[in-house]
Amino acid sequence: LAAGTQAVAQAPMQMEPEQVAPGAWYVQGQSALGSPANQNFISNAAFVITPSSVVVIDALGSPALAQRLMTEIRKRTELPISHVIVTHYHADHIYGLQAFKAAGARIVAHSRAREYLQSDTARLRLEASRQELSPWVDAKTQLVEADEWLEGDRTLTVGGVPFKIHHVGPSHTPEDLVVYLPDRKLLFAGDL
Is the distance from CB of 14 to CB of 7 less than 8 angstroms? Predict the structure, then answer.
């Protein structure tokens, strides 16, 4: 039984990006609690290819999942990943940030997430995740702060593509952001 459980934990989860607009894809995690079997792939993430670079929305629930998302992005473009916009700082959306940061991406989030990052809740959640979600979340998994903390709404223009970032919290979290692409009539809403 233990060998079978380990085999399930090591088998890659299906990650098939679905195109939702020209140059825009998303991946959908399972509707479940995070576990070694699902590798903490329980949230959605998206990416938008602009003429100059790629913008990712949410980083998924482990560094390994973030690496797999980057592999999927590379199947579609060789442009660099310039930004990751974090809709909120829950584990299933942020444990992949360190992989994107290592790849040179700039992290953008709402400043209200700082309170969570500095809390015992965040520290204890990560400690528990290192035990409960091993090997996908382990001692090397770190909490990553944003490079740019937003205080309110902002339009981020990348490669001529406007990303309208709106603060809609407190809702699911105090820092909830949504990302709207007006030219594609596409809204990324995190866990709202």
Answer: no
- On whether the CB atoms of residues 45 and 27 are closer than 8 A, the answer is yes
Residue 192, both tokens:
């709202």
CB atoms within 10 A of CB 172: 15
Distance CA 186, CA 192 (A): 15
Structure tokens at 79: 């442009």
User: What are the tens digits of pLDDT across the range 41-78?
Assistant: 999 999 999 999 999 999 999 999 999 999 999 999 99
**Strand ranges (E), 106-176:** 106-110, 148-150, 154-158, 161-167
Q: What is the pLDDT of residues 87-117, one digit of tens each?
A: 999 999 999 999 999 999 999 999 999 999 9
Single-letter amino acid, residue 48? V
Cα–Cα distance, 38 to 70 (Å, whole number)? 18
